[in-house]
Automatic annotation (TrEMBL):
SUPFAM superfamilies: (Trans)glycosidases. It catalyses: alpha-D-galactosyl-(1->3)-1D-myo-inositol + sucrose = raffinose + myo-inositol. This is galactinol--sucrose galactosyltransferase. It comes from Actinidia chinensis var. chinensis. It holds the Pfam family Raffinose_syn. Belongs to the glycosyl hydrolases 36 family. Keywords: Carbohydrate metabolism, Glycosyltransferase, Transferase. InterPro entries: Aldolase_TIM, GH, Glycosyl_hydrolases_36. Its EC number is 2.4.1.82.
């Protein structure tokens, strides 16, 4: 058999790099090569329809990772080995292809990448049609192509699924998204977007603190409370509850839902004005929104204030009878969900809107709506917006040229308004996990990566962390994944805090005033309100990609990331504390689960290691404070109980001369210690060797060195240091102001 990297269909088999992906492929499947060994899969039909389902053949005995929409708004992961396990509404499918010689290594504790390559299938947008994948009970892999408009039909699709392969899964995903970016031209890779400044500062969101009962007084109390504890927020989200809305359907008898909404009809509440409601006007603590924003910026030093709104104005859209809204020509439309959505979990929001209707702004007027809203907010001093409920547009495409083009029209209008009214590409997208939105994102650079943090749901906590990590494999190539807020005083606070320290994301809480754990916050936040943000999106390590860290009872979740001069791995036991939606619960796992961490699990470590790296690493273990020196393929055994975590700083050992081996670790009391290091150099002088480090922050600074230095200076002033010859840990205290420090270590 001739081995060809470019995918093809031959004798009823879908072949990729010589590997049979599926058998029994029907003759109506077409393959169109693209670039670099990649291709598009399409299909033909004799009958026109607005929704086709095509068969890609039988897929068996091949490990896969699926990211699928388990409800209208959000994705979660699913792993398996056959087509029957692939969920409906799959938007990302990664397959592991192993040669026969590699099968014996499957259960080995040693990380092995040899004889393994990966196949990526991305269902994409083909003109006005959107594609998703699904399996069948007979192990067939199907793909669904749909427009969302009964009058928008087709008999063929040529670019429904993008398929590519490679031996590095992370590079494969990145290069594939970049090929699609160039070929489709409808979205932009994250490397080509402006990154908002709020990401590098600690924040506070009003949502879980107050829900819709947010008030100016509560906002002031919340900021003041964090300031008094030494963790000044510099980034504020005023979430749902500030807008002028009306509800025509509410009944007093409806029950409260999770402290947030009165009942089903509450989601049909509609916007009546772009200006703030009475809570934020003419009260004793607030003249208006402009006065409030000016006050909190001047008194508390807040740098960024984002205001919440829904993509369609409010949850139920806008109120057509409102005099202030009539200029946008809204009308009531009734959402209709795709069979794919109702095939998984229904959602109370969309169920409500199907019943009561959505006040949809005329797509030809939506540019005016966003510009009016955002220019008003900007005039009040707001710096950006968090835009929620985005996927709702996929349900109202009928009569508007279908779901894809309607979404794209709104997305374009939204992003143009952000550029026009705010300085810093200041938008957080939310409830936007459909490919209609993802592949229409030209400028938006930040998006929520999982369902909400829900403090009252104990079984959701481990799912939240695992879902964001896996979703970031896909989303992290288009946006900076936002891990959502959390509570610093909560049973799982450190679990969430450690994950966000590794996520390369914004760090913000939604604590109620006076209810904080500053011991945890001070491991995330520097005294000036900045954070030590890692450089990439935190993602599962390669050996975790095809495991279920929530429900298989044996696998730990490992998340890797990079700083400027080191790597970092967080390891989390997500077992025994919850179960994925749409999967049956299983017996709880054993009290502790064993695994291992290796420097090899930090991808691209060589890119930050420097030319003088000797291939070994200094590994600092956060909670124990221990330091080990390991070869690249060395490993540390780890045992964690449920909802426990550990963080490992992986610092490449640099050989500066024959006798000096050195690795900077950073601020040892911060979860992401290596994020503090901004620059590193070494000079040889007649009197000896001098290592210079530029670091940010204050506290205990640590480094590995095989030789005790003669002295250390901080900002040219000699400082005492502690050196442990047994493990090579050097520590020096960085006191004073929390800014950039010049550390010199002289040998």
């Amino acid at each position: 058999m001739t081995v060809t990297a470019t995918p093809c269909v031959k004798d009823g088999r879908l072949l990729v790099n010589g590997k049979v992906v599926s058998n029994g492929v029907p003759p109506n499947i077409v393959v169109s090569p693209v670039a670099g060994g990649s291709a598009f899969l399409g299909a033909n039909s004799s009958i026109p329809s607005c929704r086709h389902t095509f068969n890609l053949g039988i897929l068996e005995e091949m490990k896969f990772l699926s990211l699928f929409k388990f409800k209208l708004w959000w994705m979660i992961p699913r792993v398996g080995k056959s087509g029957s396990e692939i969920p409906i509404e799959t938007q990302f499918l990664l397959l592991e292809a192993r040669e026969e010689s590699a099968l014996c290594d499957e259960n080995s504790s040693e990380p092995t990448n040899e004889n393994t390559f990966y196949i990526l299938l991305l269902p994409v947008l083909d003109g006005p049609f959107r594609t998703s994948l699904l399996g069948t009970p007979s192990n067939e892999l199907h793909f669904c192509v749909e427009s969302g408009d009964a009058f928008l039909q087709t008999t063929q699709t040529s670019e429904a699924i993008f398929i590519n392969s490679g031996d590095n899964p992370f590079e494969l995903i990145k290069s594939s998204i970049k090929i699609l970016e160039r070929h489709k031209g409808t979205f932009t890779h994250i490397e080509h977007k402006k990154i908002p400044g709020h990401l590098d500062w600690f924040g506070w969101c009003t949502w879980d603190a107050f829900y819709k009962d947010v008030t100016p007084r509560g906002i002031k109390e919340g900021i003041q409370s964090l300031l008094e504890g030494g963790c000044p927020p510099k980034f504020l989200i005023i979430d749902d509850g500030w807008q002028e809305t009306a509800n025509e359907f509410h009944k007093d008898s409806e029950p409260l839902i999770e402290g947030t909404f009165v009942g089903e009809s509450d989601f049909a509440t509609r916007l009546v004005d772009i200006k703030e409601n009475s809570k934020f006007r003419g009260t004793g603590s607030c003249v208006d929104l402009h006065e409030l924003i000016t006050f909190v910026k001047e008194k508390y030093g807040i740098k960024f204030i984002y205001m919440w709104h829904a993509l369609v104005g409010y949850w139920g859209g806008v109120l057509p009878s409102s005099e202030k809204m009539k200029k946008y020509n809204p009308k009531i439309v009734y959402p209709r969900q795709s069979p794919g959505n109702v095939g998984n979990l229904r959602d109370i929001v969309i169920d409500s809107l199907e019943k009561y209707g959505l006040g949809l702004i005329d797509p030809e007027k939506v540019c005016d709506f966003y510009n009016d809203l955002h220019s008003y907010l900007a005039s009040c001093g707001a710096d950006g917006v968090k835009v929620d409920v985005q996927n709702v547009l996929e349900t109202v495409g009928a009569g508007y040229r279908g779901r894809v083009l309607l979404t794209r029209k709104y997305q374009y209008a939204l992003e143009q308004s952000i550029v026009r009214n705010f300085k810093d590409n200041s938008i957080i997208c939310c409830m936007s996990h459909n490919t209609d939105s993802i592949y229409s994102s030209k400028k938006s650079a930040v998006a929520r990566a999982s369902e909400d943090f829900m403090p009252r749901e104990p079984t959701f906590q481990t799912l939240h962390v695992a879902a964001v990590a896996f979703n970031s494999l896909f989303l992290g190539e288009v946006v900076v994944p936002d891990w959502d807020m959390f509570h610093s005083k909560h049973e799982t606070a450190e679990f969430h805090a450690a994950a966000r320290a590794l996520g390369g994301c914004a760090v913000y809480v939604s604590d109620k005033p006076g209810i904080h754990d500053f011991k945890i916050l001070q491991k995330l936040v520097l005294p000036d309100g900045s954070i030590l943000r890692a450089r990439r999106a935190g993602r599962p390590t390669r050996d975790c990609l095809f495991t279920d860290p929530v429900m298989d009872g044996k696998s730990l979740l490992k998340i890797w990331n990079l700083n400027k001069f080191s790597g970092v791995i967080g390891i989390f036991n997500c077992q025994g504390a919850g179960h994925w939606p749409l999967k049956q619960p299983y017996a709880e796992s054993t009290p502790s689960i064993f695994g291992h961490v290796s420097p090899l699990q930090v991808e691209y470590l060589g890119e930050v290691a420097g030319d003088n790296w000797n291939g070994e690493c200094a590994v600092y273990v956060f909670h124990s404070g221990s330091l080990l020196r390991l070869p690249m393929r060395g490993a540390i055994d780890v045992s964690l109980a449920s909802v426990q975590c550990e963080i490992f700083t992986i610092a490449p050992v640099r050989v500066f001369n024959q006798s000096l081996h050195f690795a900077p670790l950073g601020l040892l009391d911060m979860y992401n210690s290596g994020g503090a290091i901004e620059a590193l150099s070494c000079t040889m002088e007649p009197s000896g060797c001098k290592v210079k480090i530029i670091a940010r922050g204050c506290g205990r600074f640590g480094a590995y060195t095989n030789t005790q230095p003669r002295y250390c200076t901080v900002d040219l002033k000699e400082e005492e240091f502690v050196y442990n010859a047994d493990d090579g840990l050097l520590t020096v205290k960085l006191g004073g102001e929390c800014n950039f420090r010049e550390i010199e270590i002289v040998y």
